[in-house]
Design brief:
heterodimer, A: about 625 residues, alpha+beta, Aldehyde Ferredoxin Oxidoreductase,  A, domain 1, Aldehyde Ferredoxin Oxidoreductase Protein, subunit A, domain 2, Aldehyde Ferredoxin Oxidoreductase Protein, subunit A, domain 3, 3 domains, six-stranded mixed sheet, 25 helices, globular, B: about 80 residues, mainly beta, Ubiquitin-like (UB roll), 1 helix, about 5% helix
Chain lengths: ~625, ~80
């Protein structure tokens, strides 16, 4: 099997390191990564636990294909209870950290308790140490990675760490690895900070073995790489233009949330798009420097950019003149459209701050959008912030990002996220979030299925739990009408279950633009012992989804939380194809519950849990 | 009548040089012109003409040869793309 069959249990309270055998029965039932770690989590943690208490745990977890020759097989996830939402959190990252963890001989790390002082975990194959991190506390992600590599005299170490925002309690802090890849959403970095765990540094030299049928595995992974290469999206579109190619499309179809979802089209979208990143500036250079791949990836969608050295954000700060990660579509949307800011270089600068100090650009940007609306309404005063913060102000966006990263002044309020901030100012309706987590870059008035996706996502509003945009807008695998609710409950369920399998395998969900489960299945079957038929995978995906749902129900969530802000269900879109439309969640939700085998309160029935073995 | 043609991503290269910066080209076309009447002369590879929108609404392949453009319409085209 593609498992090492060993994982680490780190008790930070006691300062102990234990080696345990992986539960192979659970691996057979929940596959790996998201599914398997969530199984461990729900078995070990009280659903009502305070996410920032020592009783919460966090699991760094790989999939069976992590570190293998499967394309994009470098993914790892962090599973915990999220402080932003109070729901199950599972954030997935690329880069090289996940594969390195597997090379060191470990499938997973369970972190529990709370260290009395800042520490980092050092893993060099079998040598695992909890080390003092007093000298790293207060440092950024970038400083932390560099310092750890110098300390160990090894540039090949891969580091996952938190920045100052994770130390300062920003509720949407990330865990960043390899400088600019992140387990980005739901505040998994905040949990790490609450445990006084600054970083995990890994060096692995063992490689990955235990593939059930190596010859068949090499054959089938080669064939599936060819599928990716021959596909126009994964072979050409994503490597050339990256995710940012969506900016103009989503604007054209009238589903680009703008100024805290007041509008659905942004007049400056083209200025912050993929095409704009390719364009030559007056200095003769383009914003985009190159694309970049994560471990084992044959798509290479990542963007590496350089901003204009004369831009106001960096003119006196050469530290930010080098090439760095970004912009990706979600960050460009949240930092730009959500706030009405059409300054590409300002967005890239703030994106660099998000990477440098580890905070989620989606939740941060959307919270700024809500703050700008509260400022516009006179509910937040200039005196409180220290400066004007109208929609469209790149200066305000930049200053608030710097303040949030450092935990200074009004940045502390921004760090609470939009739900808590809007409640504080008496307008909870202005938080564009579900279960406390901010929306990503698709307005559900113009893409109806995404309303149901957001409302039912187990980790709060998220596009990565069922990306029906692929079907409703991009025609993958088949084109459906984004303006109708018809057929969307079935579509959302199918995307949710299939995505749960991909997230549990060790490969990237972006492969699904070319692959279906039928492409993943033979790779898993060649790697793993046991039955990994299509029927089994479909069942496992559904099982994982229901397991997460049951944890949330036990944590106190009910059907009332499967909801959207009133703006999206009461205020029609003003322009574009969706003009006059609101999201039809009320029509979709009962049908979705029925298809899921849940009762009217959104709880899996006994029949459903029995069928899924839960 | 006047329409606007927008080409994005790798299709940008099929626009005249002066139109590439904005990805759009104002055009005058005869009444009854269909999307394919506009697309055909550009000689774009068929497989790259993937997402065809008129005023943001998707036009299925079969309708691209029959639906007449109207005054002021915006015809926007993308190759196969994705993101997220």
């Amino acid at each position: 099997m593609a498992w090492t069959r060993k994982f680490l249990r780190i008790d930070l309270t006691k300062g102990t390191v234990k080696v345990e055998d992986l539960n192979m029965k659970w691996a057979d039932e929940y596959l790996g990564q998201r599914g398997l770690a969530t199984k461990y989590f729900v078995e070990e943690v009280d659903p009502k636990v305070d996410p920032l208490s020592p009783a919460n745990k966090m699991i760094f977890t790989t999939g069976p294909l992590t570190g293998t020759m499967a394309s994009t097989g470098g993914r790892y996830s962090v599973v915990t209870k999220g402080p932003l939402t109070g729901a199950i959190a599972c954030s997935n990252s690329g880069g090289y950290f996940g594969a390195e963890l597997k090379f060191a001989g470990w499938d997973m790390i369970i972190v529990e308790g709370k260290s009395p002082k800042p520490v980092y975990l050092s893993i060099a194959d079998d040598k695992v140490e909890i080390r003092d991190a007093s000298h790293l506390w207060g440092k950024t992600v970038w400083e932390t990675e560099e310092t750890i590599k110098k300390t160990h005299q090894d540039p090949l170490i891969h580091v996952s760490s938190i920045g100052r925002s994770g130390e300062n309690g920003v509720l949407y802090a990330c865990i960043v690895n390899d400088l600019h890849r992140a387990a980005g959403r739901s505040g998994v970095g905040t949990v790490m900070g609450s445990k006084n765990l600054k970083a995990i540094a890994v060096r692995g030299t063992k490689g990955v073995g235990n593939i059930r049928d190596p010859k068949e595995f090499m054959k089938v992974t080669f064939e599936k790489k060819k599928v990716l290469a021959d596909n126009a999206v994964t072979g050409q579109g994503l490597p050339t233009y990256g995710t940012q190619v969506l900016m103009n499309v989503i604007n054209e179809i009238g589903a680009l949330p703008t100024r805290n979802h007041r509008d659905v089209q942004f007049e400056s979208a083209s200025k912050i798009s993929a095409e704009a990143m390719h364009e030559k500036r007056p200095d003769g250079k383009s914003h985009l420097v190159t694309n970049q791949a994560c471990f084992g990836c044959t798509i290479a969608c990542g963007r590496i950019s350089k901003l204009d050295e004369k831009h106001f954000t960096v003119v006196n700060n050469p530290k930010y003149w080098g090439a760095s990660g970004g912009l990706e579509y979600e960050a460009a949307w949240a930092l730009g459209c959500a706030n009405g800011v059409g300054d590409l270089d300002a967005l890239q600068y703030v994106n660099m701050l998000c990477n440098e100090d580890g905070f989620d650009p989606i939740s941060f940007g959307a919270t700024i959008g809500a703050a700008m609306e509260l400022f516009d309404l006179g509910l937040i005063k200039k005196e409180e912030i220290g400066f004007d913060a109208p929609f469209g102000s790149a200066e305000a966006l930049v200053k608030l990002a710097e303040m949030t990263a450092r935990g200074e002044g009004f940045g502390k309020v921004i760090g609470l996220g939009s739900k808590r901030m809007c409640e504080k100012y008496g307008r909870p309706d202005l938080s564009m979030s579900v279960k406390g987590q901010e929306f990503p870059a698709y307005d559900s008035r113009g893409i109806q299925g995404m309303g149901l996706t957001y409302a039912t996502s187990n980790r709060g509003a998220c596009h990565l739990r069922s990306y029906t945009v692929a079907s409703e807008v991009l025609g993958i695998p088949v084109k459906t009408d984004p303006l109708t609710t018809d057929g969307k409950p079935e579509l959302v369920k199918a995307f949710q279950d299939a995505t749960a399998v991909f997230d549990s395998s060790g490969v990237c969900v972006f492969t699904t633009f070319a692959w279906t489960l039928a492409d993943l299945q033979p790779q898993l079957a060649a790697a793993l012992e046991g039955d990994w038929s299509m029927d089994k995978l479909n069942l496992v995906g559904e099982r994982i989804w229901n397991m997460e749902r049951m944890f949330n129900n036990s944590a106190g969530f009910t059907s009332k939380d499967d909801n959207l802000p009133p703006r999206l269900t009461n205020e029609p879109a003003k322009t574009g194809p969706a003009k006059g439309l609101v999201n039809g969640l009320a029509k979709m939700l009962p049908e979705y519950y029925k298809i899921r085998g849940w009762d009217n309160d959104g709880r899996p029935t006994n029949e459903t849990t029995a069928r899924l073995g839960l | 009548m006047n329409i606007t043609l927008k080409l994005y991503a790798t299709l940008t290269d099929y626009l005249p040089a002066e139109a590439r910066k904005t990805n759009q080209l104002p055009m005058q076309v005869a009444d009854g012109t269909t999307p394919m009447d506009v697309i055909g002369p550009l000689q774009m590879p068929e497989k790259l003409v993937h997402l065809v929108l008129i005023n943001g609404h998707y036009v299925p392949p079969a309708a691209r040869v029959s639906r007449a453009l109207q005054e002021g319409d915006v015809l926007a085209i993308w190759p196969p793309i994705a993101g997220g």
